[in-house]
Amino acid sequence: MTNFAEKCVTKKEFCEIAGISLSTGYKLIKNNKIKYEKCCDRLLHYYKIPLSEIKKVSSCTKPSMDEDDEYESKRELIELYYKNKLKDYPECVSAKDLRNITGYGKERIRRWIISGKITGTLIKREFRISKDDLYGFLISRDYYFLGKKSNEHRRDIVALDNKTNGGMAK
Fold it and tell me: Is there a contact between 34 and 56 (Cβ–Cβ < 8 Å)?
């Protein structure tokens, strides 16, 4: 057993601070990507994780200053790109349309809605998003810096890079 001299947190606290899901935290522990100590207090089993380990995870999930500067330099182009991409859609977009636009599945979209990243209304048991709200989400840092990107999201980024570098991509 390792006794850490520094302050430690539980797995749940670790995940909240690092901004990752509990299942991702569990995978990091099981794959020995972070240091931890498994503790047992009678029937209660838990993990103690040093606070220094959060920096390892945060550097992988949060954009660096260079990436942030890159995003800011592309901001106008991103806005134009998504405005053009959404021009043929109605003012109120369905969740199915959102899946087609972003390339992400039902579960990811459901998590965005629950977390408040996407706002909309329920009309006749179907979730609807205003085009303006969707546009705001698509040009946000949250969407641009998603860790796992769908194929559609990757195509959008490649198209943006091609436009930035002077090429014309669809």
Answer: yes
